[in-house]
Specification:
Strand content of chain C: 15-25%
Structural class of chain B: mainly alpha
Strand content of chain B: under 5%
CATH topology of chain C: Rossmann fold
Helix content of chain B: over 70%
Chains: A mainly alpha (303), B mainly alpha (306), C alpha/beta (345)
Order of helices and strands of chain B: HHHHHHHHHHHHHH
Distance between the termini of chain B: 8 Å
Number of helices of chain C: 10
CATH architecture of the largest domain in chain B: Orthogonal Bundle
Number of helices of chain B: 14
Shape of chain B: flat
Number of domains of chain C: 1
Strand order of the largest sheet of chain C: 6-7-8-3-9-10-12-11
Helix content of chain C: 25-40%
CATH topology of the largest domain in chain B: MetI-like fold
Oligomer: heterotrimer
Chain lengths: 303, 306, 345
């Protein structure tokens, strides 16, 4: 950047020009974070799949004699129960591990539903425009402005709290994000000459949408989907926390948090660790998503 | 400009209508409302009689229009199943508490996010900048309710600095406000930072500097004012986030506001209150957005060309 | 390289009122395309962009017609109407005895394959997620014209025709240069064995050195595949070499339509003269005559609110009082030479 001499001295005081080194380090840092995120996700997946083999105890086994034990490194704790026990004597670590399954299952399923609905509507709105677009856009605006919680809570309350219904509630309230992105990208793509070429080659609209437009949407959708999984996990645990989600005794991180809240004055670990699990899971997924976005963006710009 | 406002107003009304419709019809999805009002042992004939008496046997559309009429003209959303008082009264009682919380959170957010964002932009790649990025990353993944609970544990129990429940004094407001704001701080920080960055690289800033103006004046008078515009627009959107967050925060801190009322009502199936809250929330969000958009249009003439 | 033979026709191929001839591959009559401008709360139509406002011409079998004009004159719109990428507001497009402007989308499929298009921007005319072989051969598969082995053979054949190698087939578009991408686009158009190819500014986005290559490629393909061309360009120099006839367009209407030689040696319309005087004189010689550099005054008027009477009158150095009042009709000044100007009416 060319600067006049008058300003140079001022600038050196307030701005540090980014050196090539720092830019590269930043990029690597981002990617490294992404790797960390990837590892976290791997850990989650492995835990979820192999829990029955890895968990030290039965998540439902109660033992009143051993209730409210603190973590193993604190006074009164036992090695057998690494993270302590809850108010019914159930091993906390085990329940957290089993909770991974619930969270991942709900998170992934909900996002799949969101993508199907959201991208479908976005394609329609973006490609056809006109009235269909107005209606869909209006719907998207309505839903995006509204606090998700109320909508989802009401749905679950009406449908009844079951795993299935939670997935439905999350899916049905979460699709607008995808529609917004899909719509804009579709509108941009629609004007690209290769789409015009496909039209002039007499391809059906269906084929154009599926083979030409959709594959070009995928990168952005993928990045968004990653982040949405994290949000879905948080939302599910929120619903469970409020008592409107997974019902006890099924181990969900949200329920454990709710139960832990009653004991938070003295037995803080009951609330801290499940919440930490939620936080770390969401963080890991977000890191991966950010790194993905970094990777995909320049690639898009190059081509 | 006028067309813009009118168009937005119509949109706003439309949105509220749609939402009221959704929440109303939600009720009929699963259960027959009459069954909720009557004791479980009621005979089928009694149920029919009851329905006729209260008008629950009319077609759903008619019931909806009736509901709409009463709600809009008289502010009558029906009576709470649980408390046996008009639903609006319950809401009105709780509204100020939520308002207090939301305002406090908003103040907290901007007091933290804006300066950090500005400094992050000015001193790029410095400690503050990295801090901002880090916060943004972490903030996205942080579950509100866990954060609240951890705050309670750390500051309330271990350190004993702050009270953990009740809503009497200003001190009680601190933890809940911080919790509620935690969702929004990273967003605003990033916005201020990117807004400042963009503005700082503009030519008129260099001109101001070349003119020999004091740096601080340059920053404030020229740069910040322009960078603040996207912030204002976003604040409208944040209404929704604030209200949603309020639901959670109030539950965690036992704060007597609308959010907690919402959760309790939904859990107990108190439909009139739920409907009323949903509509009120919708109105708040929509009006908030509208106000922010109009404000933005006033500040930035470019937006007006709609 | 201009084809040696001239079309020896006793009657010229320009439309108004001329009976259809068997040698006409495509005839355009009174083509109009108006885009509505919507504004306000309810999307009211407050005006129109008169992109194409009554254009008529014909293309003979085996002929190359060049359509030139400034940006915004509507030439690209004409091309897209021919491909039915836009639906014409009025007028007829007669191909093979049928008015394709009026066909339903289903019946259109048959004609779509006979008329193909080459697009302007090499960077957006190829789907970045498909391999080259898919891009070139997709239509063959969709329309069941070739399958299995023969499909691959045909695709490779097309690639060879445009001067690219078979091992390029498995690559992605971003691995190629602009000129190569245009060739891929040409291969895609050729794959369907069309009769007419509309090239919409085929070389505008390419470096000058590559432009000649691509133009020559088009020319050499013409004979072998028995093609006819409509080449749309804003630069006369581009079409001059390979066009048999040239049509000059201004603000949605045709100003002049004549053979290549005639346009060059004997331009009649003041706009054509101005266009020609802007062409850099790369060659000296007998074909050049001294022309004064004719500069036009004023900006190009907007197609939303075109000038009354003759569209060109606001910038015409030979403007008369009549020009602002009435539109000049298309007049034949010589065999196969038509002009729309009051100087000749």
């Amino acid at each position: 950047m060319a600067e006049t001499t008058i300003e140079l001295s001022r600038l050196e005081e307030t701005e540090k020009e980014p050196t090539v080194l720092s830019l590269v380090l930043r990029k690597m840092w981002h990617l490294r974070l992404g790797v960390v995120g990837g590892l976290v996700i791997l850990l989650l997946l492995v835990t979820a799949v192999f829990t029955p083999l890895l968990a030290p105890h039965d998540p439902y086994a109660q033992n009143i004699m051993k209730r409210l034990l603190p973590p193993a490194w604190m006074e009164g704790g036992e090695r057998v129960h690494l993270l302590g026990t809850d108010h019914l004597g159930r091993d906390l670590l085990t329940r957290i591990m089993y909770g991974t399954r619930v969270s991942l299952l709900v998170g992934l399923s909900a996002v799949v539903l969101q993508v199907v609905i959201g991208v479908g509507l976005g394609l329609l709105a973006g490609f056809h425009g006109g009235r269909i677009d107005s209606v869909i856009s209006f719907l998207v605006n309505v839903m995006m402005g509204f606090p998700f919680i109320l909508l989802a809570m009401s749905l679950v309350a009406v449908l009844g709290p079951s795993l299935q219904n939670i997935i439905i509630a999350l899916g049905v309230t979460g699709w607008p994000v995808f529609t917004r992105v899909a719509r804009i990208e579709t509108m941009k793509l629609r004007e690209q000459e290769f789409v015009l070429a496909a039209t002039s080659l007499a391809f059906t609209t269906g084929r154009i949408l599926v083979k030409h437009i959709l594959p070009n949407l995928l990168p952005s959708i993928l990045v968004l989907a990653t982040v949405e999984v994290a949000r879905a996990i948080i939302r599910e645990s929120l619903l469970s926390f409020l008592g409107l989600g997974i019902q006890p005794p099924t181990p969900s991180w949200g329920i454990m948090l709710a139960e832990g809240r009653d004991y938070m004055l003295l037995q803080w670990w009951l609330a801290a660790f499940p919440g930490l699990a939620i936080f770390l899971a969401a963080l890991g997924i977000n890191l991966l998503g950010d790194a993905l976005r970094d990777l995909i963006d320049p690639h898009l710009r190059k081509s | 400009m006028k067309t813009y406002i009118i168009k937005r107003l119509i949109q706003a009304v439309g949105i509220c209508l749609v939402i009221s419709m959704i929440s109303f019809f939600l009720l009929f999805l699963n259960t027959d409302p009459a069954l909720l009002l009557l004791p479980p042992e009621a005979e089928v004939e009694d149920i029919e009689v009851f329905k006729k008496q209260t008008g629950l046997d009319r077609p759903v559309i008619v019931q909806y229009l009736d509901f709409l009429r009463k709600a809009v003209l008289e502010g009558d959303f029906g009576e709470s199943f649980v408390a046996k008082v008009p639903a609006m009264r319950l809401i009105a009682e709780r509204f100020p508490a939520t308002l207090k919380l939301a305002l406090a959170a908003l103040i907290f957010v901007n007091v933290v996010a804006v300066p950090v964002g500005v400094v992050a932009a000015i001193r790029r790649y410095s400690l503050w900048d990295n801090l901002a990025t880090f916060t943004a990353l972490v903030g996205q993944a942080l579950p509100l309710y866990w954060f609240g609970i951890m705050l309670i544990i750390i500051f309330g129990v271990w350190l004993g600095w702050l009270p953990i429940s009740g809503s009497d004094s200003l001190v009680h407001l601190i933890l809940p406000a911080v919790t509620l704001g935690s969702w929004i701080v990273p967003i605003n920080m990033r916005l201020v930072r990117s807004g400042m960055l963009e503005v700082l690289s503009q030519d008129y800033i260099r001109t101001a500097r070349a003119k020999g103006l004091v740096e601080r004046k340059v920053l404030y008078k020229h740069a910040f004012k322009n960078a603040a515009i996207p912030l204002v627009t976003v604040m409208g959107m944040q209404f929704g986030l604030l209200l949603g967050g309020a639901v959670v925060t109030e539950t965690v801190f036992a704060w007597p506001g609308m959010g907690r009322l919402a959760v309790d009502s939904i859990r107990m199936g108190d439909y009139p209150v739920v409907q009323a809250i949903v509509v009120i929330f919708a109105m708040c969000v929509v009006l908030g957005n509208l106000a922010a958009d109009i404000l933005a249009a006033l500040i930035d003439p470019r937006i007006r060309l709609d | 390289m201009r084809t040696g033979e001239r079309q020896q026709s006793p009657r010229p191929a320009a439309p108004p009122g001329i009976a259809p001839r068997a040698a006409h591959l495509l005839r355009v009559e009174g083509l109009k395309k108006h885009f509505p401008i919507r504004k306000g709360l309810l999307g009211k139509t407050v005006g129109h962009v008169f992109a194409v406002d009554g254009v008529s011409f014909a293309i003979r079998k085996g002929e190359t017609l060049g359509l030139v004009g400034e940006s915004g004159c509507g030439k690209s719109t004409v091309g897209r109407c021919l491909l039915r990428l836009y639906d014409p507001t009025a007028g007829r497009i007669i191909y093979d005895g049928q008015d394709i402007a009026a066909l339903s989308p289903r019946d259109l499929t048959r004609f779509r394959t006979k008329i193909q298009m080459i697009f302007q921007d090499p960077y957006s005319s190829l789907n970045p997620r498909l391999r080259v072989k898919e891009i070139v051969g997709e239509a063959l598969r969709v329309h069941n014209l070739a399958g299995g082995r023969s499909w691959l053979e045909r695709v490779a054949e097309m690639m060879a025709e445009v001067g690219l190698q078979a091992d390029h087939l498995a690559r992605y578009p971003h691995e190629f240069s602009g000129g190569q991408r245009q060739r891929i686009g040409i291969a895609r158009a050729l794959a369907m064995s069309p009769e007419l190819i509309v090239a919409d500014e085929p070389v505008s986005a390419l470096d000058v050195s590559i432009q000649a290559q691509v133009i020559n490629l088009l020319d050499s393909l013409k004979e072998k595949h028995r093609l006819s061309y409509l080449i749309i360009a804003h630069d006369l120099a581009v079409v001059e070499h390979i066009s048999d006839r040239i049509a000059v367009m201004y603000l949605g209407k045709l100003a002049e339509l004549a053979s290549d030689r005639e346009i060059y040696l004997n331009p009649r319309h003041p706009y054509t003269t101005a266009l020609l005087s802007a062409v850099p004189k790369a060659e000296a010689g007998a074909r050049e005559r001294r022309r004064q550099r004719q500069l036009l005054t004023g900006d190009v008027p907007s197609p939303i609110n075109p000038p009354s009477g003759c569209r060109f009158h606001t910038r015409c150095p030979e403007v008369k009082e009549l020009c602002a009042r009435t539109e000049p009709p298309m007049i034949q000044v010589e065999p196969d030479h038509w002009v729309s100007c009051h100087l000749f009416s």
